[in-house]
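Note to self: keep these together.
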Amino acid sequence: MSTTGRLQKLLRTDEYPEFKNQNIILESQFVELTHKGDPIKAVIIGITDKFFIVAMDVINDLRKSRASVLVPDIDIDTVDLELEWVVPNMHVIPEPVHNELVLDVRGHNDHHRYFMVSITRGNGSRNKIWTKWMKHLAKNSPVPDQFLKEIPPKFNMSMFKKDKTVSDDAIVKSSVHKVTSIAKVFKNKMSTRKKTTPCAPIANKLPRIPTDLYDTRGIIKEKKKSCLCCFPRRKKRIRS
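Structure:
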């Protein structure tokens, strides 16, 4: 399965006709490090069926070559990208550095090069990229455990794989046993709870008050009577 990344586009150009038939299986951005862990440069690493390829961006000075700016058919993804290191897979031994997301690539002359997964924009999650590389290298390695153990626990799905020696009935029985044990623990907790008597309703606790004291009709009538007696109306005088 080939990719459509920058490195694959570069191999399809006329600049490298000897690699036109090569399909990039896996391609990601890395940062090359020194043996002390200092960054050197950003690179793109790809793997084919036959080669381990490292490419890097060589940015030209546009002030010296202005003609390249005026060419309309330039592909931005490949204009500055060049192959830096192409080695057959049989002469390269990539090994993971423990808990560092770093590949230790050893050549046929025992020269070590260190590549760390890049965190640049568009590269994706570091853990996902690292998981893809570890799974791919484990498939083609006689010792796959050294790669599989470096996969982050979140992305390691081996814990969900069913063992061939275990039957389906044993898996069902173990799951049922777990459910029943959880139910027993829940019942024990409910039984150990203190039994409390329910509180009496608040309406029964309030004292009973006669409703005649709050008869508002009589109060309104008394107010009307007092107003009449306090402020009697004056009779109009009839002029002769």
